[in-house]
Design brief:
This protein is an alpha/beta fold and about 375 residues long. It is built from twelve helices and 17 strands. It has helices at about 10, 40-55, 70-75, 90-95, 120, 130-140, 170-175, 185-195, 240-255, 280, 320-335, 345-350; strands at about 5, 20-30, 60-65, 80-85, 100, 105-115, 145-155, 160, 165-170, 200-205, 220-225, 230-235, 265-270, 305-310, 310-315, 340-345, 360. A four-stranded mixed sheet has the order 1-7-6-5, with helices on both faces. Strands 4-3-2-17 form a four-stranded mixed sheet. It starts with a strand and ends in a 5-residue tail after the last strand. The structure holds 6-aminohexanamide.
């Protein structure tokens, strides 16, 4: 498949909203022992559940390393496709391709540069070269040409779009030192608008407290549909999350989207703070250059990190009293989709959640 040197916006390609129809989704099988406890065994069970649930609604492809291919194939149901591909970790939202469509239903993709959330400044592991190749390989499998940006670092979890010209990001992440500090905010905005085909970028100040991705928007805020967002929220003024949510709410209340609409904002209460236990911490290998997992560290837990698929929402839950509220809020916001809950503490312990481990491929005219 070809590498393209033109601009998606000029070529008539746009990133669709995640709530638009999918051809399928990708997941990468977890195994690295310095991020996933006990060599990834508990996480593999939960990834299997995520793939199995999503696979009931849309085609799922799981990427597994050569060493894990047989194990993944054995654990996953036969309706999930497993392909062998080298990787550094399992966050396909971030290192995978960002797929685009045009009005005819043709598809292309953006292949951003990936540096493990901050490179040598504050990245989470080193090296990341295998992950940086994942998007290209996904494009080969899907048969789509790609726009490769060698000089622009971006993770898929740091953007959300409404498919109608609006992109949403956080300043904390997109302006972080380890990504594109050679560019101004205006220059970054231009790249986003050119490559996602947007007219307006909404800059939420910060994401979830203690989020090791420098505050990815996909843990903080999401488009339910154009003009409607959900925002992670706490009413506890003593929680460091409080001022982050309040400033985001005030910002989102003060702006309009690309179509000039005021946003309808729905608050999604976060779970009670989730801390790493001694046992969980002891299961993770300590490796120089990888973020350690220490007992008592607070994880960046949020219900906003859900995946929106064909006819369903895959929602992480934590065995917390707030789980029920999240199901209720999302059931009302998505009357036509089934809310599928998955107990996702093991994914959270790796530093993200269901949205971070999935990457949708939009439906085209060919698939
Ligand atoms: O939240 C994400 N999008 C990914 C988190 C990566 C964590 C790596 N340890």
């Amino acid at each position: 498949m070809k590498r393209l040197d033109t601009i998606p916006k000029k070529d008539g390609f746009r990133m669709p909203g995640e709530f638009e129809k999918h051809a399928g989704t990708y997941i990468i099988w977890p195994e690295r022992p310095d991020n996933w406890r006990l060599g990834g065994k508990p996480a593999q069970k939960v990834f299997t559940e995520v793939a199995s649930v999503i696979g009931k609604y849309e085609a799922v492809t799981v990427i597994a390393s050569a060493g894990q291919y047989s194990n993944a194939r054995e654990m996953l149901p036969s309706y999930v496709r497993v392909v062998e591909m080298s990787n550094d970790d399992s966050w396909v939202r971030d290192c995978g391709a960002t797929f685009l469509v045009n009005d005819k239903g043709n598809r292309r993709a953006v292949d951003w540069s990936f540096n493990a959330w901050g490179g040598l400044v504050d990245g989470l592991y080193f090296p990341w070269d295998k992950d940086d190749k994942i998007a290209q390989k996904m494009c080969e499998i899907e048969g789509v040409d790609r726009y490769r940006l060698d000089d622009f670092i971006l993770e898929g979890g740091s953007i959300h779009v409404d498919g109608e010209g609006t992109c949403m990001v956080t300043e904390e992440c997109l302006l972080s030192e380890g990504r594109n500090s050679h560019l101004t905010k205006e220059e970054i905005e231009k790249v986003l608008c050119d490559y996602l085909n947007c007219e307006k970028v909404l800059w939420i100040p910060r994401g979830i407290y203690n989020d090791e991705t420098n505050g990815h928007v996909d843990n903080m805020c999401n488009f339910v549909r154009p003009g409607v967002v959900v925002l992670a929220w706490t009413d506890d003024e003593n929680d460091p999350q409080y001022e982050r949510s309040v400033e985001a709410y005030e910002y989102l209340s003060s702006v309009t989207d690309a179509k000039g609409r005021k946003l309808e904002i729905h608050k999604l209460l976060t779970p009670t703070p989730i801390l790493i236990t001694k046992e969980e911490s002891e299961g993770v290998d300590a490796v120089d250059g990888t973020l350690p997992r220490q007992e008592g560290d607070r994880m960046a837990a949020s219900y906003v990190n859900y995946y929106t698929g064909n006819g369903f929402v895959a929602l992480p839950v934590f065995g917390d009293p707030m789980d029920e509220n999240a199901v209720k809020v999302l059931s009302e916001l998505y009357p036509d989709r089934k809310i599928e809950t998955i107990y996702a503490r093991e994914i959270l312990l790796g530093g993200g959640n269901i949205h971070c481990i999935t990457q949708q491929v939009p439906k085209g005219t060919d698939k």
